[in-house]
Amino acid sequence: MTSKHKLGQGKKRWTEAGIKASFMLCALLSVATTIAIISVLLWEGLAFFRQVPLLDFLLGSRWSPLLHPRSFGVLPLVCGTFLIVAGSALVAIPIGLASAIYLSEYASPRMRSIIKPVLEILAGIPTVVYGYFALTFITPLLKTIFPKIQVFNAASASIVVGVMILPMVASLCDDALRAVPDSLRQGAYALAGTQLEVTGRVVLPAALSGVVASFVLALSRAIGETMAVTLAAGATPRITANPLMSIQTMTAYIVQVSLGDTPAGTIEYQTIFAVAALLFAITLSMNILAHHILRRFHEVYE
Q1: Pairwise CA distance, residues 11 & 87, whole Å
Q2: 264 vs 260, 268, 269, 298, CA distance in Å?
Q3: Alpha carbon 125 to chain centroid distance?
């Protein structure tokens, strides 16, 4: 082996070692960032819960931390958040699943190459644009159907959030459906199954774990949506199931208090971290649920 070849091998090893070290650094940076976020939430959240009992926070039905008499029951914010999640699910899940089935089972390669990028464009639109779209288009449209609808309402926010998470549902469901091997499809066709029967009775059940996990992940994304619901849903914390009324979500409250008018270190300021900690716990639980569904019901095909 020549010295030139040895030099090349040594340079290659050093390059690979440098790349490996950079990858490890990126992984450690991600872990450190997560730990730092959790630490801040815990530190400020514990300071809040030293003054407000945890059960009063979780079970209280009135949220008024900025005005006297103060009340720190977070249920109105949780109710508003899940009202948006439920409404967005009604929009995103059926349309997203139907889009994924069409792209995976029915669309030609040319049609797929057109529809898939259009869905991805929806995911790239800034959320503040969705919020103004809800105010200037969705709400006036709903007002022609429901004249008593408020300017800021949960229905228009739910629709735009549903459109926002639609690409995630469609993309993840499409990946799950396309992962089903063609041998299952061909076997069903050999038994004289129609294309609709093969899709509904063979392909969809085989990909059910991935489909359900995509729903859970998309809804966890809807829970954390901020600007669209801040602009469209309003800032009125209340416990209601009426989507025509103004509500406030957890993220919208965090935006409201984070504008800079609340002095740092006060209990009003600490409510940001208490609400954020609850939001973090909810989204973390949903992500864990999605991964559990994938592991528990995942089908392995050979």
Answers
A1: 57
A2: 9, 8, 6, 47
A3: 15
The answer to whether 74 touches 227, Cβ cutoff 8 Å, is no
Cα–Cα–Cα angle for 299, 301, 302, rounded to 5 degrees = 155
Q: What pTM value is reported for the model?
A: 0.85
Asked if residue 239 lies in contact with residue 61, where contact means CB atoms within 8 angstroms, the answer is yes
* Count of H-run helices and E-run strands, the chain: 14, 2
Q: What angle do CA 158, 149, 91 make, to 5 degrees?
A: 20
pLDDT at residue 183 is higher than 80: yes
Rounded Cα distance, 163 and 96, in Å: 9
pLDDT of residue 191: 81
Locate the domains of the chain by residue range: 3-50, 63-297
E-strand stretches of the chain: 63-64, 71-72
- Integer Cα distance of 259 and 151 in angstroms: 22
CB atoms within 10 A of CB 212: 17
The larger pLDDT score, comparing residue 263 to residue 33, is at 33
DSSP 207-243: THHHHHHHHHHHHHHHHT--HHHHHHT-S-------T
The three-state DSSP-derived secondary structure of 70-90 is CEECCHHHHHHHHHHHHHHHH
CATH of 63-297, one of 3.30.70.1070, 3.40.50.2300, 3.40.50.261, 1.10.3720.10: 1.10.3720.10
